[in-house]
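seq:
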Amino acid sequence: MKWLRQLIALTVLFAAGTWFVGWWMIPVLGAAYGAWAANQRLTLITTTLAATLAWGGLLAYDAAAGPMGRLLDVLGALFRVPGAALLVLTLAYAALLAASAAALTRGLRRLATPG
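struct:
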């Protein structure tokens, strides 16, 4: 239950940070969570899943507000990839940003903490 509360809180923080500040809040918040939860077992999984869910929620909101399918078709043609691949790449980008920042600060925190 504690893990689920942390996942929900981190997902909301990632979504709000991205919405109000920008994409670079993903590594900032991921790093902060990695340092805070350095000794927890599921830190990297929680960070990765929360970032993916947050950006998935933001993408779903944007899709409900406008013609996301048409935009994906145009951008997909521009990059010569299917439109659905852009969604997967976008979610993977958020997940990798959050996980790498959390892993870095988690490792640094474990090195700095005696015991």
